[in-house]
Each structure stands twice: as structure tokens, then as C-alpha cells.
Amino acid sequence: MPPFPRPLAYGALGAVLLAAVACDRSSSSSSGRADRGGDTAATLSPTARYRPEVEEGLGISVAILVDNSGSMAKRAGGDARPKYLVAREAIKEMLAATDSLVARRPDYPVNVGLYAFSSRVVPLVPVGRYDPVKLWDALGTMPEPKGGTAIGDAMEAARADLYRAGTFRKSILVVTDGENTDGRSPRRVATEIAQRSENSVRLYFVAFDVDAKHFDFVRTVRGEVLSAADASALHEGLDRIYRGKILAEALDAGEGLPADSVRPAVDTTRRSQP
């Protein structure tokens, strides 16, 4: 049999080597993407630890997720107004507690984001440095509620933005009046967030005019669920979680919030009403 042609042998060997290099580069690139906290779930390993996209330090980042599904147009218990107006007012009042913290600790980074969800998720104000006027205006210009309830998708969108905010402390606060109807399962998203963040992302749910038992899965990942049967309970629940938990626990050990941070007076003359 004649010897194998030398040029052909080298050519075949070169092709094999090139293919191996390309495969290795592709594998390295995919691995790099999987380490980033803001990438989509499709490019991430289901067990890989989230990685921040920016350098992180002291401070707190909070993503507030507001249900804007069709059921929020129904009348709230204990109030003549629809639930969406009651919820927006309660969130504005809740956010006012941030003003006291920022005034007392102007050097302490506080990031707040606002997300509306129905059948889809709308980042009204992505997680960034606290801006009360921007947040109030976003609440006041939200469209009337309609559609389904994509809680899991909203949690995932907020989680990704939290890993771009630059603080070690991260919290997600969900205000909803119903179970998930669209998109990813919030139970699965909550479990994934807890595991892959190593419980560094805290989850808080306020069940507004809905049985809190629907969200018991939050407790299994060391989160907290509060029931708010009516408008008054919603105000109290949000204050308890936001001021009493999220803001208070963000401060150094032994340091509390100023006494006037409980629903402080806020000038609303320049801010949009719901």
C-alpha cells in the first residue's frame, strides 16, 4: 500500500487541532458567562453561584415588585378605592422612610428599584441610587392594571439588576394579590435565588387580600411572608418589612433608625399622585 501523503496528513492534523482550540475557547467563553450574575437563565448553570457584574461594597439594594394584574383593579378590603391605588399609596408612604436614612447617612449607598408585573415585567425604575422623585413619578404614571401575574419572571428580572447594583446586601420585596399565572414558577425562582446567592438575597412577600399560604415556599428559603387582608394591614405590613427589617438590618450592628423614620412627613406638592 502506498504511504499516506504527507501534506494531507498535516492538513488533517491541523484541522483537528483547530477544532479542538475552537471548542476550548467556546467552553471557556460559556463558563465566563455562567459566572456573571446578570446573565439570563438560559446561559447559566442551574447550580452556579451568582457573580456580581460590578465590584460590591457596603450599602443596600432593594427591588420592589408591584402586582399590576387585572385583579388589582378590584376594591380593596376596608377601603372604597381599588387595590392598585391603595398599594401605590402604601408604597409611597413606605419609601418615605428611606429619606430619613439617607439624610442621616448620606455616605451610605442606598439603591432602590421599582418593577411592575402583570403578564410581563416592566422595570419602571431599575435598581439604582435612591431617587424619591423618580420613584414617586413612576408610581403615579403606572397604567391601570390588567393581564396575568408573572411573579417568578419579576423576581428573576429584579435579581439580575441587584447583581449590577454594587452592594453586598440585596433584598426583593413583592406586593401581590394573587398566585402566579404566567412565566416561571416563583417557587422555583425563589429556591434558585436562595441556593445560588447563598442566601445573600433576602425575599419578602406581602400577600395583599390573598391567603398568605400560597407563598409558604418563601419561608422555606429563609424569607418572610406577611398577610395584609385590607388597606390598613398593607400599610402596617410594608412599614414593618421595609423600615423594620430591610433598612434597619442594613445598618451596622447596634445602630437603629432615627425615631422620625416611622412615616415621616414628606412634601408631596411636586410629586405625582396615583
Description:
The structure is a single chain. Helix 2 runs antiparallel to helix 3, helix 2 (83-104) packs parallel to helix 7 (231-250) and helix 4 packs parallel to helix 5 (186-196). The termini are far apart. The protein has helices at 6-34, 83-104, 132-140, 151-162, 186-196, 217-220, 231-250, and strands spanning 57-67, 110-117, 121-129, 167-176, 201-208, 224-228. It is α/β, with parallel strands linked by helices and 274 residues long. A hairpin with a 3-residue loop joins strand 2 and strand 3 (121-129). It has a 6-stranded mixed beta sheet, with helices on both faces. It has 2 domains: 1-34; 57-261, von Willebrand factor, type A domain (Rossmann fold), CATH 3.40.50. The model is unreliable at 1-43 and 253-274 (pLDDT under 50). The radius of gyration is 23 Å and the shape is globular. 39% of the residues lie in helices and 19% in strands.
Write down the CATH class of the largest domain. Answer: Alpha Beta
Mean pLDDT: 81
Helix content: 25-40%
Give a count of the beta strands, DSSP E runs of length 2 or more: 6
| Biggest sheet features | 6 strands, mixed
CATH architectural group of the largest domain: 3-Layer(aba) Sandwich
How would the blueprint of this fold be written?
Layout lengths: L5 H29 L22 E11 L15 H22 L5 E8 L3 E9 L2 H9 L10 H12 L4 E10 L9 H11 L4 E8 L8 H4 L3 E5 L2 H20 L24
Parallel strand pairs: 1-2, 1-4, 4-5, 5-6
Antiparallel strand pairs: 2-3
Helix pairs in contact: 2-3, 2-7, 4-5
